[in-house]
Amino acid sequence: MECPACGRPLVEHTVGGLTVDVCRGGCAGIWFDQLEIKKVDEPHEALGEELLSIERDPTLQVDFERRRTCPRCVGQVMMRHYFSIRRQIEIDECPRCAGFFLDSGELQAIREQFTSEVDKNTAAQSAFGDQFAPQLEAMREESQKKAERARSVARIFRFILPSYYIPGKQSWGAF
Fold first, then answer.
1. What does the pLDDT read at residue 171?
2. Domain that holds residue 71
3. Whole-model pTM?
């Protein structure tokens, strides 16, 4: 396989039971097949430590703005997106095989983003609130208005037919 960032050959590298492809002596990028990145993306996962120190050619210049093609799927352009809700680290993902390519230093940055699971959940809740709070509030207000209209209609029917709305006299329930 060829490195999507610098074009040099990717070399298989086994850490524990995990085999990834690395650009050793080139840009030091790492290719993770589907779901492999989940085994090394947190600081407490020991497998990732060895992947933080891949030899890199310091004279090599990598164009980070260039679109990259998947090293597994010939001709497939990878999508660039943020790895987490903090929107600090952009990674490349193949939409066909779901593999990830990380540039040099990105794995380190991913591992340092959240110090604990609580920190990750707090950041997710905050981002969710920032993104959807206005829509949720509008939906809540609309729901309250509909409930109030339904209560008004129920009060009218109670006045018109009071005996019919005595609890226990109907099979469908009372207001």
1. 62
2. 11-113
3. 0.65
